[in-house]
Amino acid sequence: MLLTIGLNHKTAPVDIRERLAFGPDIIVAALRGVHEQAGVDESVILSTCNRTEIYCAADEDGCSRVEAWFTDFHGLEARQVKPYLYRHCDTDAVHHLMSVACGLDSLVLGEPQILGQVKAAWQTSCSAKACGKLLDRLFQHTFTVAKQVRTDTAIGSSPVSIAFAAVTLAKQIFANLEEQTALLIGAGETIELAARHLHQQGIRHMIIANRTLEKARKLAQQFDGYAIGLTEISAHLAEADIVISSTASPLPILGKGAVESALKKRKHRPMFMVDIAVPRDIETEVGSLRDIYLYSVDDLHEVIQENMKSREQAAEEATEIIEQQVNSYLGWMKSLDAVSLIHSFRSAAEHDRDEVLQRALRQLRNGRDADEVLQFLAHTLTNRLLHIPSTTLREAGSNGKTEILEAANTLFQLKQ
Predict the structure, then answer these.
(1) Distance between CA atoms of 4 and 54, rounded to whole angstroms?
(2) Percent of the chain with pLDDT strictly greater than 90
(3) Per the count of CB atoms within 10 A, which of 125, 201, 252, 306 is most buried?
């Protein structure tokens, strides 16, 4: 069976999500851990700031073990986690993945970044040899569906995203962004999108901070900014009117003390901060400081709601596409049941063919007339292939098993 176990922004607050996240440094070990559970054949782990989900191909016992492993891996008790978890099986699991990849289950309806995150999760699983036939086909089919939704609907027509919402909030606090300085911590897709939106709003001063300086420089060059390492943040924090942070750090990058020092240097001019990361990059205590406006990903929900009305009709159209494509994938899954039967049927027929052919060849080598040998080959092979079906049909007729007769009529496409 197919299984999805997880939690997201709808079912769990950020402090629970960050405790159950799988960072890039532990994701491969986590995949191995899932595979150590008896009854689990395949797995993919998707972990973002808004969701953590485990996709599995497993038997019923394996599914139960994965749920228990999920909490154990993070050092939590089942009672602490269970209220926030959802579980989808088979059809529901397929539908859920397609909805996630198309952005229909995101905090920002139709946001495009999630598709790249789903692809990255699949690629990681493939590299770790955790993705097999069922999940590989499911994820590749899902990517095709997501592309169709983007092409055939207007789901991505409006610039609505976490990054867009963050910049919208900044505009509400600072009337003129052109005169402000932004410090962006991280260099991933979300930070790049935030930089692009800020640049479009005319902001002139942008600082990109990242653990890998070269990556920060590459991003900063696109928007006329300059790059610094994470260790240099304290020296530049006082310059920043706007701070947007999204890294994969397991520990906070900005603490209360560093921000207090920056405020003193700024003579308490206000600072706007958005912490998009899970686990959080900015200590929650920072939000208690005067002249600090600190928002988490959960706080952006209201802003986002105002900007996604235009996507609602497109979402309905996307749902119709997903419904059709769920059936397509499930049809393929069902066809797998017939594969082994077809293989066995063909193997038996080929065995009979080879045996009768060898007998015919021996007759030719012994000097028997070729026409007689051909007659023998055709007659014997036909009898071999039809004996068991004919016997079974005869018995079905005698016992009144009309469903077998009807199935045979459909199978062999006979005209009565």
Answers:
(1) 6
(2) 59
(3) 125
